[in-house]
Specification:
By secondary structure, the protein is mainly α. It is 75% helix and 0% strand. The chain is built from eight helices and no strands.
């Protein structure tokens, strides 16, 4: 990692210990069953209500695993070390992970969701997920699990996969509409 990356890492890692509860929650929240249940209920409500909320929920459910898979592939291909493995002079806030840190999956997953929500529901609802994605990425640096460049790489991966999902979704809907329109315009004669 370059000097600027390390300097930003040390700066964020040295933020006050009073942030520990918030940063630990953001870094590990998805591992807690109450949050998983709350998110499952949110998705279920959106799907049941229908409309753009349904489409948003489904696309977010498609985008985040794709973003996560991309980061896993990148971690195996590029093998950038995590600060908690490579450095010795940082504030230890969690158990060191020995896997590679190339692109933060946490940052990518939240960025994918934020991208879908912002694209589909606008800034009003998307901004909530943008804040969550930003704080989640910062928490991974604060906890010494990723360098800033790895979090940025994760955010880029997440945004790209979120956009990919919404663009493919739109292309499929446009194709289906063209097929429907063409079939109505050219009815098949029956005898």
């Amino acid at each position: 990692m370059n000097a600027a990356d390390r300097a930003v890492f040390y700066w964020i890692n040295a933020w006050p210990n009073g942030l520990d509860p918030l940063m630990r929650f953001l870094s590990e929240a998805i591992n807690h069953w109450p949050l998983r249940m709350a998110l499952a209920i949110l998705v279920l409500v959106m799907v049941v209500r229908g409309g753009m909320g349904r489409a948003t929920a489904i696309q977010a459910l498609i985008a985040w695993p794709i973003a996560n898979g991309l980061t896993d592939i990148l971690k195996h291909a590029l093998k950038w070390p995590r600060p908690c493995v490579e450095l010795s002079d940082f504030i230890h806030r969690t158990t060191a992970l020995t896997s590679y840190g190339t692109a933060s999956a946490h940052a990518a997953n939240m960025a994918a969701i934020a991208t879908v929500w912002t694209y589909r529901l606008g800034w009003r609802w998307g901004s909530i997920w943008i804040v969550i994605a930003t704080l989640t990425g910062l928490s991974r640096i604060y906890m010494a699990l990723h360098y800033p460049s790895e979090v940025l790489f994760g955010w880029v991966c997440g945004v790209a996969m979120g956009l990919l999902v919404v663009k493919i979704w739109d292309a499929i809907l446009a194709h289906r509409e063209r097929v429907r329109t063409n079939s109505e315009a050219d009815p098949v004669e029956t005898t």
